[in-house]
Structures are given as structure tokens and as C-alpha cells.
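Weekly structure sync, notes
Attendees: PL, DS, HV (note-taker this week)

Item 1: Multidrug efflux pump subunit AcrA (Membrane-fusion protein)
DS walked through the input record. Source organism listed as Hypnocyclicus thermotrophus. Sequence as pasted into the shared doc:
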Amino acid sequence: MKKSIIGLLIIVLGISGYYFLLNGNKKNEKEVKDNKVIVIPVRETEFKNSITADGKVELKNEEEIFINKALRVEKVNFEEDDTVKAGDILITFDEEERNDLIREIESKKIQIKEQNLIIENNKFETSNIDIESQKLEMENIKKDIENIKNNLILAKLSLENLNKELEDAKKEYEVNKELFEIEGVTITELNNSKNTVNSLSESIKQKENEINSYKKELIQKNDEYELSNKKLIKLQYDYKKAETVRKNTIKEANYAIQRLELDIATLEEDLEKTVKYIASPVDGTITENNATENFMASTDTYLMKIADINSQIITAEVSAEDIDNVKVGQDVIITFNDKKTLGKVSKISSVATTVSGNGYEDVYVEIEVTYDSKTAGFRPGYSVELEIVTSKIENAKVVSSFAIKKDGKNNYVLVYNNGEAQRKNIKIIEKTKKISVIEGLEIGDKVIVNSANIKAGDKVVLTDKIISEIPKNTSQDDNEEPGPGPGLGGGKRPN
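Item 1 (cont.): predicted structure, written out as C-alpha cells:
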């Protein structure tokens, strides 16, 4: 369906009557003394092309309200057909299960604190001071053993010397005894040699006792060293065991914390699904309600369906012959009950629809128009009128397309100038069947409309019918055929 809003409609009516009245019977030029003409002064105005269509208000979005976990419904605050605002509490649920989950989460967090305390208490390495003390003790024993061995060696050397001295003393004593028999030595000398033998024998016994004492002490020290070494081995074993236990305790505590954290994450995920209530995500109207108080709500189907009142669009069908002039982003004037709202073309379908019947076949393409639904006051299902502005020129110089003449490639019009038709060449910026936007004329030029039988230089007189002003807003459909009457042409899609 197309609509042409044209301010020069009256012009066309005037042209139709006067044109045929004055020029219906062609006269010889010599018989025509004066040509009566109708003129329109050139004025600046807003020029626009537009296409009209019938539209219907629809909702683009419907919100379906789901839950992620089966819950017992406590209260349903709204019924079907109720109007809600974004944030309104639609449904509340029993909180017992939610509270149990919260308590379990807190219990797990306390257990994590306990495990962290265990880690804190075992973070320091086991003391090895006993091991170091034992090693020091063994070093001292080892030194004692070395000293005893050295003393034993010295004692044995001393014993050897004493034995040699004793052997020499015995020989000397035997010699002295023989000499004493022959009075070669005195009794004193003999006794002295005997005393020397006895003294050395006594020294040897003492040295032997000393050596035996060293040997016993060496055995004791070796036994002591062996016992100390066994004690060291035991201390080292106990240390490694304690360190292993300590490290394993820390590992087990860390593993326990990881398990508890996983448990908490699972519980918190479950808690997130265990909602206290559901709020409306949009402003709208409840179209379906499947929630029942004191019954379990299922996850298999939505609890409510809400028509999003702010997702309104208008759909309309534009004929295939007009759709090429329609572009996304073009202004659309929406009319409902004489109230106008501004919208924009937001979508043009890529698929056409063919409608046929009763001897006709029309092809249409669906478009979508968006607008401020909060201020428009439309409801889904309303039928509205759309005027799609396909082009617009501000401060346009507009003339009737009937006044334009052609001379080869040049376009021109005849202008009334002091009783004479004067030619002025023009450039057509944009045109329709009835109206043209041009360049080449001045504001106030009187363009002759009924110029079919008039040439430049002809004498002309004005009729008493002078159209003195172009309407401020001039629109014209490009595909509309000119006609003599007020009919708008086109027509609506058959029902």
C-alpha cells in the first residue's frame, strides 16, 4: 500500500480544469491574442518522499522463567495477566534446604581452619640436636681411643727397653757373682747389681700392668664407641621417621583442605541454584503461570512466561515495488488514534511473501520498526499506520512536474515575467510524477503550470486563479501516477 501526501494537490486540480478549458480546442497562433496562464511562485519548503504501510505492534521477546533445581514453592505473588515491573518478586521458595546448605558450608570452612592449624603446628623441621650431640660424643670417644692406643704403644716400647735392661742387669749380676767368689767385686757391688735386677723386674711388672690397663680401657672405649654409634643410628632413624610423619601430616592436611574446598564449591553451586525467590527480569505482563504453592517446582518447564513490554516492535509489509526505497535507519512516522510517534526501520526481511487470490498476486517484504515503547503507550496487538520517509530535502525549491519542459537534454520551465513567458533552464535534483526539486530558479519566480501550448516569448496574462504558495511540507510517492482528482492512488493490500 502506498500513500502520497502532496501539498500541490490543489495545483493538480486547478491544472486539470484550466488546462483542458483553455487548451481543449487548439487554435491557430494568429488567432490567439493572449494566453491565460496559471502560475505558482517558487518557495522554499521541505520535500520528502514516503511510503505508507499498515503495521501491527508485536513483542519481540518473551521471557521464560526457569529454575535450575527442583524446589518447593512457598508463595506465588502474581497471576496470569498481571503486570509486573523488573525486580518484582514473582515466586518465593521454602528456605529449609537452603539453610541446611549454608550450615554445611560453614562446617566445612571450620574444618579447613582446623587443617590449617595442623599445618601450622607441623611447619617446623624436627630438631636434630640429639643427633649432633651424639656425634660430638662419638668424636670424643674416638679421640680417647686414639690416646689410649698411643699410650699403649709407648708402654710396649718402654717394656721392651726394660726387658733389655733387665737382661743386661741379670748378666751383670751373674758376672758379679763369679767375681765376688774370687773377690773381684765387693759385696756392695754385688748387692747393687742384684737390686738393679729386682728393681727392673718390678718396673717390668708395673709396665705390664699399665699395658693391661690400657688394653682394658681400649676395649671399654671401643665398646662405648660401638654403643654410641648404635645410639646415633637410632637417633637418625627416629629423626627420619619423625620428618616423614611431619611431612605426611602436612600433605594429608593439604589434601583434606582440597577435598573440603571442592565440597564447598559443590555446595555453593547447589546453594546458588537453591534460590530464595525469583524476580522479574523485565517490565511486562505474565502470560503463563505454572507455579503452585506448596508443590515442588520442576526444572523441566518454565514456571512463568512474561511478555517483555520494552521489546515492542512494529511489523509491516511493504510491496516489492517499494521495498528498494526502504533502508534500515530511515525515519518512520507511526500514527495511532491521531497521535504520532517517531520510529526507525530496524530490519528488512531477506525473504519475500507472495499473496494471491481473486485474480491478483502481490509480493510483499516484511520490515520491522523500533520506537520508544515506554513513551508511545502502545500495546501488543494494536494496528497502526506507518509513513516511511525514504528521502527528505530541507529548504527545497519545488515546482510541479507538469510545468517542466524538455529541449533535447536540457530541462526548463516558463516563468511569467511582465506579461511574457520567459524560459529558464533548470537542473532536476529529485523528482516524482507530480513534483520536482530543482535548481536554477529564484525564490518568487512565477512558474507557468499550463505551458503545453506556450513558447518562450509568448505574451501571456494571468488568470484570476493564482496559486501563491507551496505548502511547507511536500511529499510524493515516486510510483504514483498523476491524476486529475484528489485520489491518492495505490491502495491497500486486499483482505
